Amino acid sequence: MAFDEHTDDRALVQATLDGNRAAFDLIVERYRRNVYQVCFRFVGNHEDASDLAQDAFIRAYRALGKFKGEAALGTWLHRIAVNVSLNRLALKRPSHESLDAGPDPRAEEGRALASEGRLLEDTSGERPDEPMMRAERAAIVKAAIARLPTKQRATLILRVYHELPHEEIAHMLGSSVGAVKANFFHALQNLKRLLSGGPLG
Amino acid sequence: MTPHTMTPHLTPEELIDSRERQLPSARQAHVDTCAVCRAKLAEIDEVLLDVAAVDMPEPSPLFWDHLSARIRDRVAHEPPPAPARDNPLARLGGWLTGWSAAPRWAFAAVLIALCASLGWLGLSELRRDRTGPVAPAPRSVQVDNAPAHAPTPETAVDDGDSEWALMVQMAEDVTWDDAEGSSLYVRPAAVDRALVELTAEERDRLLQLVQADLARQNKKS
Lengths: 201, 221
Description:
The structure holds two protein chains of two kinds.
Chain A: H1 9-17, H2 21-43, H3 46-63, H4 73-91, H5 105-115, H6 130-146, H7 150-161, H8 166-173, H9 177-195
Helix pairs in contact in A: 1-2, 2-3, 2-4, 3-4, 5-6, 6-9, 7-9, 8-9
Chain B: H1 12-19, H2 25-33, H3 35-52, H4 61-76, H5 88-95, H6 101-117, H7 119-131, H8 153-158, H9 162-171, H10 176-181, H11 190-197, H12 200-220
Helix pairs in contact in B: 1-3, 2-3, 6-11
């Protein structure tokens, strides 16, 4: 059986279960970006994110027989990616990444461009150093997010970057909806403190 | 007295609801007149702007094919995924029917975590104890308010602690994938949480079981 980008997810799952590994390749191709992005948001670096994305797909492959089709395949893979990432965070030591932010490629690039005077050629109307300042600010915020307690961090990531409803987050994290909202609030409050140079609350 | 002083400030949950326009109008009326709550909402908005500005770096276009190739290689070494089958955890769930949902999940998570960390709780030794002709009196039987008389190897498992024996038998078939497929992840702090959620009686029983098995492992080594 030939598959293409129009082949239904269900058909791909069934074909994989029937022993057709090419069908699983297509599932990977279809969802790899989303799965990688989920993982990246949790671990914040490319190396770990690509390892986790790989693990997520292998787990999905092994568990494919248990995929009931009650949720969309993408949602199911998303959950696996979140769980793989949360397990990794639980195993890792708490991050002590400095809020002064390590070298961020975008900030570095901004500095390099500024030193070469190339930013002066920007015709977008913004100040020449604005891209660099934005990149530096983003790196600082990213480092602050990495310092949040795991559950607050997970809640923030799932809500802001993946726009999941509170109910879905509660299901994934094994919490109540109220606890998810409270965690979201405390995550934001802690971020505010961290970005102002204060300690976690 | 201004209107907002008559009602309490918004809770953290309500502040989030207010930002997402989910707050009941009666509570929203408080926000409209309360500078403190409005300031908190402004703070939330400010931080959210910062968070939203952290974008995703796009990997090299070559990365995606590389990732696919890595996954393909790994999959090539995997057996084909098995279709859904009778899951031993379903039987486990059935045995625990009398429990509320949270402790049942918690207990199963603890069981799996303990099995993994204690080398399956010395199951192989337990099996030998059950089948061996001259096995020494097993120690695991002492955990459940065992009678004063020393049990025989058979009664040790089947009579003295038949429920645990059933758990052990079922746990032998449980793989991590089974557990995961049944949503029985050992999530971060799951064991801590399980211990908090178990009733005192359940905790005592679990503690006794673990202590008995640790003692047996120590004696063995």
